[in-house]
Amino acid sequence: MTDELSNKIQDRQLQIGMVIFPGFTLQDLAGPQTAFGLHAKTHIIWKTMEPVPTDMGVTMNPTITIDDVPDNLDVLFVAGGGGTPEIMKDRELLDFIARAGQTATYVTAVCTGSVLLAMAGLLEGYRAATYWPFYEPLIALGIEPSYERVCVDRNRITGGGVTAGIDFALKVIAELKGQDAAEFTQLVLEYDPQPTMNSGNPRTARPEIVAKIKGLWGRTDEAVRVANEHMERRAQLSKLAPA
């Protein structure tokens, strides 16, 4: 980001649009929104103003619909969650994400939200992090996966699964508002991770735990299927396009 753009951003209230959907993971939204809310106006976005269920049964009230989102958001953010495979087929929402991403200063996601960014055509030529069982659908969409907890590739910032949302948000705040603002936010949240075990990553978890998680995520296969169908349709349309 240029110094001129950085100064303009720091001199006004940030506008952050946060996309949710039926079956999103609450923590994907709650961690980043709590951090962003200290510095920005956050808009919780869905297609209607009806309460949106998470993948664990809690509901969240949107604050704005896709028809009323301000132009030129500073940050477009997409949550992830168990409902991702179904939302990969939601053309209306994906079209909105594509439009908003074209004018947003930063295009971002946590967890499987990066798969939705890819479905909207916003990650072509970029690396992206995602929730670890969803590397395969991301690859199927032609995106180079990042195994980092937070991946920064120019103005695309993506985080890994669920709890990575806080690390992600601190990085975004540092980019937009500076290191002091990010450190202030970290202390306000008392974000001082000291895990009581070492099973928070498939590279460190016991193999039987990894296998159990994969067994719960039959949705991954559905996401791969939808991704493959999407890429096949793109290839067919490319062949039909005039030379």
Automatic annotation (TrEMBL):
<dbReference type="Pfam" id="PF01965">
    <property type="entry name" value="DJ-1_PfpI"/>
</dbReference>
<feature type="domain" description="DJ-1/PfpI">
    <location>
        <begin position="18"/>
        <end position="174"/>
    </location>
</feature>
<dbReference type="GO" id="GO:0006355">
    <property type="term" value="P:regulation of DNA-templated transcription"/>
</dbReference>
<dbReference type="InterPro" id="IPR029062">
    <property type="entry name" value="Class_I_gatase-like"/>
</dbReference>
<keyword id="KW-0315">Glutamine amidotransferase</keyword>
<dbReference type="InterPro" id="IPR052158">
    <property type="entry name" value="INH-QAR"/>
</dbReference>
<dbReference type="InterPro" id="IPR002818">
    <property type="entry name" value="DJ-1/PfpI"/>
</dbReference>
<protein>
    <submittedName>
        <fullName>Glutamine amidotransferase</fullName>
    </submittedName>
</protein>
